[in-house]
Automatic annotation (TrEMBL):
Lineage, top ranks: Bacteria, Pseudomonadati, Pseudomonadota, Alphaproteobacteria, Hyphomicrobiales
Family: Belongs to the ABC transporter superfamily.
Predominant subcellular localization, coarse grouping: membrane
Species whose genome carries this gene: Phyllobacterium myrsinacearum
Family annotation (InterPro entries): AAA+_ATPase, ABC_transporter-like_ATP-bd, ABC_transporter-like_CS, ABC_transpr_MalK-like, ABC_transpr_MalK/UgpC-like, Mo/tungstate-bd_C_term_dom, NA-bd_OB-fold, P-loop_NTPase
UniProt xrefs under SMART domains: AAA
SUPFAM superfamilies recorded: MOP-like, P-loop containing nucleoside triphosphate hydrolases
CC annotations in GO: ATP-binding cassette (ABC) transporter complex, substrate-binding subunit-containing; maltose transport complex
Protein name: Multiple sugar transport system ATP-binding protein
EC nos: 3.6.3.-
GO molecular function per UniProt: ABC-type maltose transporter activity; ATP binding; ATP hydrolysis activity
Length: 356
């Protein structure tokens, strides 16, 4: 069993609180992804689980056992870093098997494990090469192989694909997902790439300023974000926001020009911001009833889709994702933005999502 439980884990560097009372339970076999803005504490959290960073407070359990004071080497984990950290003077075979040799494992067993891993990662033909004779993607496969061969109860990945180009990232992402499906070992993966988070994770943990904003399946976080931060974090282009106010006597929300909507429960919620995702909007003729008024600024043709930038007011520019070409719209021309109630998100003053 390699579940992971964090109980009120905090970490400070001097006066700076990097992690603030983190509570989290990861089930055996889960693929968990930590995401969040740069500096939010993702890597530090991963390192506290690894035992590479001592916690200031709280406890870490792996497989139900308290490991807070257990050194990293005794936690049964394997860590894959962004910088592959391969031994430059050893060939691929030795890079992968070195830790097993050090642990005095029988030669035949080492050989068997090495070949199995090489086969799984399709690096059998590279075993005699040195790291400098490998491409970035091949090096990362070797680094994963080295982690795999020790048969850990827990895999930790810290931005393993950041140094690879887009094609290779996609290929390796697929390989890592396949690996997880094959071996079923618990994996915790840090990234700032939301595509990786959305496609790899059983559950995503969104961190911000050393705290957990929300934990859930990719779908849950995308469709039912707990707050404005989560809503704005997942999605590219990100969700469009605009300030709104509610007329308490009528319950009518007032926001961007042309927007009007009567909320049903004015009593217990006080929406301050509305959110609509770019794919929930469509450009319609200016003046179309119920449409939000804006000015077409610019269109971007990405080949498979089109992104329109529409000025709503002042500095407020929204994006619209469209499958239709935007060439017929002229910059500076008024347009309408159609939207549907089912796609409307509302957030209160504190940023918490409230029902529409
Ligand atoms: P990124 O996405 O940029 O890698 P992250 O979310 O992984 O960021 P961490 O590396 O966990 O963030 O760092 C969190 C904060 O803690 C940062 O502000 C960082 O500067 C600080 N920090 C990390 N390690 C140390 C350290 N050893 N001493 C002092 N501050 C540190």
């Amino acid at each position: 069993m390699a579940s992971v439980t964090l109980k009120e884990v905090s970490k400070s560097f001097g006066a700076f609180d990097v992690l603030q009372s983190i509570d989290l339970t990861i089930e055996d076999g889960e693929f968990i992804v930590f995401v969040g803005p740069s500096g939010c504490g993702k890597s530090t959290l991963l390192r506290t689980i690894a035992g590479l960073v001592p916690v200031s407070n709280g406890d870490v359990f792996i497989g139900g056992e308290l490991v807070t004071d257990v050194p990293a080497s005794k936690r049964g984990i394997a860590f894959v870093f962004q910088s592959y950290a391969l031994y430059p003077h050893m060939n691929v075979a030795r890079n992968i098997s070195f830790a097993l040799e050090t642990a005095r494992m029988a030669k035949a067993e080492i050989r068997q494990r090495l070949m199995k891993v090489a086969d799984m990662l399709k690096i059998g033909h590279l075993l005699d090469r040195r790291p400098k004779q490998l491409s970035g993607g091949q090096r990362q496969r070797v680094a994963i192989g080295r982690a795999l061969v020790s048969q850990p109860q827990l895999f930790l990945f810290d931005e393993p694909l950041s140094n690879l180009d887009a094609d290779l990232r996609m290929e390796m992402r697929f390989e890592i997902a396949k690996l997880h499906a094959e071996i079923g070992t618990t994996m915790i993966y840090v990234t700032h790439d939301q595509t990786e988070a959305m496609t790899l994770a059983d559950r995503i943990v969104i961190l911000n300023h050393g705290r957990i904003e929300q934990v859930g399946t990719p779908r849950e976080l995308y469709d039912r974000p707990a707050n404005r931060f989560v809503a704005g974090f997942l999605g590219s282009p990100r969700m469009n926001f605009a300030p709104i106010s509610v007329d308490v006597s009528s319950g009518i929300l007032q926001g961007p020009p042309g927007f009007s909507f009567a909320i049903s429960n004015t009593g217990n919620s006080n929406p301050a911001t509305l959110g609509l995702r770019p794919e929930a909007l469509r450009i319609v003729e200016a003046g179309t009833p119920q449409s939000i008024r804006g000015t077409f600024e610019r269109g971007e043709d990405l080949g498979y889709e089109h992104i329109a930038h529409v000025r709503i007011s002042g500095d407020l520019i929204w994006t619209v994702r469209s499958t239709e070409p935007l060439s017929r719209y002229v910059p500076g021309e008024p347009v309408g933005l159609g939207w549907q109630i089912k796609d409307l998100y509302l957030f209160d003053e504190a940023g918490t999502r409230v029902d529409a």
